[in-house]
Amino acid sequence: MAWRRHPWWYQNRSTIVGLGVLFAALVGAYVYSPQMTEAVLASTLRQSIPLVLGALCGLLGERSGVINIGIEGQMLLAAFVAFLMNVYTANLFLAVLSGIAVGALLGLLLAFLAVTLKVDQIIAGTIINIFAFGLTGYYYQVGLQTKGKLTPIAIPLLSELPLVGRVLFENPPITYATLLLIFIVHFVLFYTPWGLRTRAVGEHPRAADTLGINVYLVRYVNVVVGGMLAGLAGAFLTLEAVGTFERLMTNGRGFVALAVMIFGRWNPISAWGAAMLFGFATALQTQLQFMEIIHIPHQFIGMLPYGLTIAVLAGLRGRTRPPAAVGRPYEKE
User: Fold this and answer.
1) What is the distance, to the nearest Å, from the Cα of residue 248 to the centroid of all Cα atoms in its chain?
2) pLDDT tens, 30-46?
3) CA distance 188 to 195
């Protein structure tokens, strides 16, 4: 098809133009109020981290042909287990690893249901969500206190740059890791043999099987690795962003991550741009409520990120093409 002959930046030019306009507006705002602008930018990046990790999770699954509706549940249960590990061991490293491990286990469960048992993938993801909602709600205990949280690490010299210094170069570890993972996943998907196999399985699994590619293995690995990324997003919420756990604290981020993935056209870098856009909407509504600039009920301001989600999905209807074999169980002949 013609769109395949264009580079990724041309395919996602609307996202890039939107982010460029946003950046120009922020530069102008920085001249007017540097402190407020830096606060909004820092909040934008912070709000985008779980969204882009969730989008990468869904992207890896769908690129190999598996729909992951269970991102919300993977993030929530990983956040809960990471929180408990921090409470009882006071070891942040083990807490992060436990969150990643829980995400991997739930990814393995999804792969088993969708790839091996060939359960409807939407139902399989819904099962994971219900399981996570029920388990975290039942075992949650009021009054548990974490033993610290991940703190920002400033990169010398770079953190002193105006506007972007403290925003990009003075962050906790998971934020830095996420920014690296965006480019690592992009490189693996589009510049390595494994990525080529993944995309082949997502587009035409029977042809890939004919060429000797193990379709089941490719789908298992991608769904499990995606689950690890969702687990890292959950660990981010409790160990880096908030420092505690509350029931249903993911607050729909897993579902918004799917919208980010679609808006980014199943491309990691474009998904990051979309996540930044959604993160900016969240940061803006928080700032508007804090400063009381608009005198309307705060519930309407709080609807801003979710209204943007609906508008984006409605606007992209018919303009995006998911992998051809996504959602279809593969039967080996």
Assistant:
1) 17
2) 545 667 777 778 888 99
3) 5
